[in-house]
Specification:
- The complex is a heterotrimer.
- In chain A, about 30% of the residues lie in helices and about 30% in strands.
- By secondary structure, chain A is of the alpha+beta class.
- Chain B is built from 14 helices and no strands.
- By secondary structure, chain C is mainly alpha-helical.
- Chain C folds into 2 domains: about 55 residues, no CATH class; about 170 residues, MetI-like (MetI-like fold), CATH 1.10.3720.10.
- Chain C is built from 15 helices and no strands.
- In chain C, helix 4 packs across helix 8, helix 9 crosses helix 10 and helix 11 packs across helix 15.
- Classes of the chains: A alpha+beta, B mainly alpha, C mainly alpha.
- Chains B and C meet through helix 2, helix 4, helix 5, helix 6 and helix 7 of B and helix 1, helix 4, helix 5, helix 6 and helix 10 of C.
């Protein structure tokens, strides 16, 4: 069942395509993170969904309602802005009340001086005040209600912005990098809070970020957007363990995935050091260029032995719980990054010769256009047999 | 002045002051000395002297003068010319300031929401600010001319009787107001445009999302409050500039006809520099200064009540 | 939200703007047109913009001979230039000291500056006139320039601007062995260039247009500034010779208007920044 669905959204600004037919479905209560480098179109997508910009093509469905022709004010979509966009002249309480006032009071009731004279205005205003207070209590900002944004810290402003977005019980929640203006400690803390608030609100949430750690740690599913296209939409585990595209593999993962150019051999396999992986013959012809990717944690390093590729350690980074090695592969002139536990890395220093081994079942193979190719590890002995036969 | 500063300064013995600090303070005094001396000679001292003159019967050309207490001030309030002049200045300000503020605000919002011709419109409305007012007043005199002026010629085309704009005591103040508005809109407009562009676009987007459906709602929620500081500033400046009207009156009407366009500064000029009644004109100047002080004080009060926007 | 979609609203908006601009520019159009009209044209057809008998040459000749226009323009430029140079040379060191140096008189000086901001030349004119009369310096460049050599507003503007310059920059300059004057000349002023240009525009516009003070201290054509000269010209030009009058106004308005049109962006930025005091 889908609560929110985007179909083939396209948008270009003065001839430059920003979104190239993006589609996305979100279930009820699902938290989806839109992640990608800056300029990939993720914020534009959010703005189109909110109704702040119009798409050139495509449709937006909320349940069975088509949102595309509706103005932002009618969509019942709430948004938390990167700068929070709090009204600087209003107190926290007034800021949170704005969406309620705009929706629950008639234009006449909203007028200054005359408004309070309108029938039932008092009751409506009292109800709004109650809602605002409840919201503030649940966000633990009830002591800030009389302050103006200028008198609040970044974290407090962020909570007020969340309160303003949630108070009217929207049917969709949009967040545009809401944590990017907070300092690092607060950011990690706020992640947990937002996830918790989301669970309580139970509405589909689209969360834009350029921080992969935020995306992977908070979302039910992660959508990776690069260059105006959505390359993969899947659970965080799948995005990491099974990237569908070379750009996804490159963008997600810290330190970055190792990528080596290679060519498909005559037997339809690819060799990397001692290991070989086979590709289905029907998809890839012999001689085509491909790229092999392997995550740093699947590179193992040994100081002695004959197995593996000979390399030399260029630099050692000690990060406490892990050690990052930058090794130079002399044979092909590439740098390979390896992630080791402190125990594995003990005694390694720059300049040492080492041997690198790769886990064959953790290799990714990407075609020239970036698509992932299905691959299977081939036992060296068996592949030798096939080569002879 | 130099003595005053020296007296207020390092004589107090404080052992904490290091040689470097003393040197810095000395450098600061040397650097600010010329400005402070001139400030004293050309601003503070003359103001004190004006207040002093206001209590004398000093007339230029006569040898001595007597202190006459508040005689000048009591005379002021029975002086029909001065009262007329205060009233005319008030009327002129009451017309020019509000119209030039709201016109500038409206035009600024129109220009801001329009994507073509922005710089052309800004230039067109700002041109009068950069033009010599005495010269342009002369042009307006021609435009307003009762018989050969284009404005009355235009009115005649529509079958309307043209008034004797600058020549009749009934209409002269309004004609001067038209010139005043024409001259000051561009200045306010430029300030409002700067204020409008400084409003973050995300605030408007937030207003959309929060349900502000109409442009009027968004204006009330975002534009008007965010322009608050600019509006206060523009209002003060507009009022002060209107109170200081002089050039057009001196060039076009000399206060006439029949004192219908006597304004404060023109009266001061006449009394002080034409009739050379320095003492009497000084008392008027003190009233003029008091008006400025009150206006500034009001501005500070309003500003204080306003929020500290982050 | 797209301006293009609301064509009707947009048409209304554009026509209001164009109509307003036409009214604001009308005086200039009539000035240029009338400056080329012969006396008979002016009386017979005031609404036609193209002169029937081209009389630009005669009108301009009249304007140039009755009053020495070159003299006026020269006086205007000289007075404005002198005022600006003195103002900057006096205000910048003072503003620097107040913004960046620690000394006890700073608070008192700040008060005096705020006080000075309130006082226009109209309030100090009487005593200054009396004093200049006693000193027999009326009718001189000195009389025109001296009262404006101190610009409290200039101090205020530069002070605001200098505060934004990081202290580290000044400390670095001191470590490099610069004197305080050297810091002002080589570090502060180059960094405060936007403030200096903004102030230049403000100062020149204000003093080029000022009529009040020149009218008081100058009584002959030798030292007349452009506004004053135009008053003399009007007095000399009895009757309604609007052709010559418009030619004269055209000559006198052109320099500043041309400067504005050439450096519009700077002008607008300068006015926005200085925005205070008219």
């Amino acid at each position: 069942m889908t609560a929110l669905s985007l179909r083939g959204i396209e948008k270009s600004f003065s001839g430059n395509p920003i979104l190239k037919g993006v589609s996305l479905d979100a279930g009820p209560g699902e938290f989806i993170a839109l992640v990608g480098p800056s300029g990939c179109g993720k914020s534009t997508l959010l703005r189109i969904l909110a109704g702040l910009e119009s798409a050139d093509a495509g449709e937006i469905m909320l349940g069975d309602r088509d949102l595309s022709p509706m103005p932002a004010a009618d969509r019942n979509i709430a948004m938390v802005f990167q700068s929070y966009a709090l009204y600087p002249h209003l107190t926290a309480a007034q800021n949170i009340a704005v969406p309620l006032i705009m929706r629950k009071l008639t234009r006449a009731q909203r007028l200054p001086l005359i408004g309070p004279l309108m029938p039932s205005q008092r009751k409506a205003v009292a109800a709004i005040k109650r809602d605002v207070r409840e919201m503030a209590v649940s966000l633990k900002i009830d002591h800030l209600l009389d302050r103006k944004p200028g008198q609040m810290s970044g974290g407090q402003r962020q909570r007020v912005a969340l309160g303003r977005a949630m108070v009217r019980r929207p049917s969709v929640f949009l967040m545009d990098e809401p944590l990017s203006n907070l300092d690092a400690n607060l950011r990690v803390h706020a992640r947990g809070e937002i996830v918790e608030l989301h669970r309580r609100a139970g509405v589909p949430t689209l969360y834009v970020t350029h921080d992969q750690a935020e995306a992977l740690s908070m979302a039910d599913r992660v959508a990776v957007m690069i260059g105006g296209s959505m390359l993969q939409l899947a659970s965080p585990q799948v995005i990491y363990d099974d990237p569908a595209h070379i750009e996804v593999a490159r963008f997600i993962g810290q330190p970055r995935i190792n990528l080596f150019p290679s060519q498909v051999g005559a037997d339809g396999t690819i060799a990397l050091g001692d290991i070989r992986v086979g590709l289905p013959r029907e998809t890839v012809a012999a001689g085509t260029s491909v790229t092999i990717g392997i995550r740093p944690e699947f590179v193992s390093v040994s100081r002695s032995g004959q197995q593996g590729l000979p390399a030399r350690i260029g630099r050692v980074e000690f990060l406490g719980s892990e050690i990052i090695l930058y090794c130079r592969l002399d044979a092909i002139g590439e740098t390979v990054v390896a992630k080791l536990s402190p125990a594995e890395g003990a005694g390694l220093a720059a300049g040492m010769p080492v041997r690198l081994e790769f886990s064959a079942d953790q290799l990714f193979v990407f075609a020239e256009d970036g698509r992932r190719l299905p691959s299977t590890p081939v036992d060296a002995a068996i592949s030798l047999e096939t080569a002879r036969g | 002045m130099a003595d005053a500063i020296a007296a207020a300064l390092p004589v107090v013995r404080k052992p904490a002051r290091s040689a470097a600090e003393r040197q810095e303070a000395r450098a600061a005094l040397v650097l600010s000395l010329p400005a402070m001396v001139l400030l004293f000679v050309f601003i503070l001292l003359p103001v004190a002297v004006v207040i002093l003159f206001g209590f004398t019967d000093y007339e230029l050309g006569y040898a001595g003068f007597r202190f006459v207490g508040f005689d000048n001030y009591t005379e002021l309030f029975t002086d029909r010319t001065f009262r007329r002049s205060l009233w005319n200045t008030t009327v002129y300000t009451a017309i020019v300031a509000p119209i030039s503020i709201f016109m500038a605000l409206g035009l600024a919002m129109l220009i801001e929401s329009e994507n073509i011709g922005r710089s052309f419109f800004r230039t067109a409305y700002f041109l009068p600010v950069a033009s010599l007012l005495v010269a342009m007043a002369t042009v307006w005199q021609y435009l307003f001319h009762p018989t050969i002026g284009p404005i009355n010629a235009l009115l005649a085309l529509g079958g309307l009787p043209g008034p004797n704009w600058l020549g009749a005591s009934m209409s002269v103040l309004y004609s001067l107001s038209i010139i005043g508005i024409w001259q000051s809109v561009g200045f306010n407009l430029v300030l409002f445009l700067a204020g409008l562009t400084a409003i973050p676009r995300e605030l408007y987007q937030a207003a959309h999302v929060d349900g502000a459906r109409s442009a009027f709602d968004r204006c009330r929620l975002v534009t008007w409050p965010m322009l608050g500081p600019t509006t206060l500033f523009v209002t003060t400046i507009s009022i002060i500039n209107a109170v200081k009207v002089f050039e057009t009156v001196k060039t076009l009407t000399e206060g006439g006809p029949n004192k219908a366009s006597e304004v404060l500064l023109f009266t001061i000029y006449q009394e002080g520099f034409v009739y050379l009644k320095v003492g009497y004109a000084s008392a008027m100047t003190v009233v003029f200064l008091a008006i400025l002080v009150v206006l500034m004080f009001l501005q500070y009060r309003v500003q204080d009540k306003q929020v500290h926007y982050s | 939200m797209n301006a293009q979609t609301f064509t009707l609203g947009r048409a209304v908006r554009l026509s209001v703007l164009i109509f307003g601009a036409a009214i604001f520019l009308a005086p200039y159009v009539f000035m240029i047109s009338t400056a080329g009209k012969a006396q008979s044209d002016i009386f017979s057809s005031s609404l036609s913009l193209i002169p029937q008998h081209w009389s630009y040459v005669q009108n301009f000749a009249k304007a140039l001979t009755r009053v020495s226009m070159t003299r006026l323009l020269f006086n205007g430029v000289a007075v404005c230039a002198l005022i600006f140079v003195f103002q900057v040379m006096i205000a910048i060191p003072c503003a620097y000291a107040m913004a960046k140096l620690k000394f006890r008189a700073a608070r008192l000086m700040m008060m005096l500056v705020m006080l000075g901001l309130l006082v226009p030349i109209h309030a100090t004119a009487l005593p200054l006139y009396v004093a200049f009369d006693r000193l027999a310096v009326l009718n001189s460049y000195f009389a025109l320039v001296a009262p404006f050599t101190i610009s409290v507003f200039g101090i205020f503007l530069f002070l605001q601007f200098f505060r934004a310059i990081p202290d580290d920059l000044i400390h670095a300059a001191r470590l490099d062995g610069m004197s305080e004057l050297g810091i002002i000349g080589r570090v502060i002023v180059p960094n405060a260039w936007p403030a200096v240009t903004a102030f230049a525009i403000f100062s020149v516009v204000a003093h080029w247009n000022d009529l009040y003070w020149p009218l008081i201290v100058v009584s002959n054509q030798t030292y007349a500034t452009p506004p004053l000269g135009l008053l003399y010209f009007r007095a000399a030009e009895a009757g309604d010779d609007y052709g010559a009058l418009m030619a004269a106004t055209l000559i006198i308005t052109t320099p500043l208007v041309a400067a504005f049109l050439l450096a519009q962006k700077r002008f607008v930025e300068g006015i926005t920044m200085t925005g205070l005091k008219g």
